[in-house]
Write a structure and sequence with these properties.
By secondary structure, the chain is α/β, with parallel strands linked by helices. It has helices spanning 9-17, 26-39, 48-57, 60-72, 84-97, 101-112, 136-139; strands at residues 4-7, 43-46, 76-79, 115-118, 133-134.
Length: 140
């Protein structure tokens, strides 16, 4: 079994919209990360909150399309469901570290599944005591 990754919503958006900032090809880096993960037998973890966050910006059928395309790349997708204990811990961490509940939950799910968080959200720097986070370009 390959390395496990918990991919933050921003990386899916970079990939799907092929986004870039002034100088960096964020979408290309996200795509290369997904290809590398697939080639190494990596496992992409996600939870319902990731889907809900994506559905704030996309129609449900577009969210389904994102995951179908990834499946077509032979990326192994694994749904994880947070427990009540993990949700309570995430609520506490969010309050104590002044981060969103979602970010705290993703860090806890990554920790408990021995996964690396793939993100470009700076809030995860506040959560390095819980889980390692890396940018897609650092993993390709």
């Amino acid at each position: 079994m390959g390395q496990k990754y918990f991919v933050d919503t921003l990386v899916y958006r970079d990939y799907y919209e092929n986004r870039s900032d002034n100088f960096r090809p964020l979408g290309e880096w996200a795509l290369e990360f997904f290809r590398k993960a697939a080639g190494e037998g990596g496992i992409i973890l996600y939870c319902d909150m990731v889907l809900a966050e994506l559905e704030k910006d996309y129609k449900p059928e577009n969210v389904i399309l994102i995951f179908k395309i990834l499946n077509g790349m032979d990326v192994i997708l694994m749904h994880v469901e947070p427990s009540n204990v993990q949700a309570r811990e995430a609520k506490s961490v969010a309050k104590n570290k002044n981060v969103s509940f979602a970010d705290a939950l993703y860090a806890i799910l990554a920790r408990d599944n021995n996964a690396i968080i793939v993100t470009r959200d700076a809030h995860f720097l506040l959560l390095t005591d819980i889980a390692e986070s890396r940018k897609p370009e650092e993993l390709i």
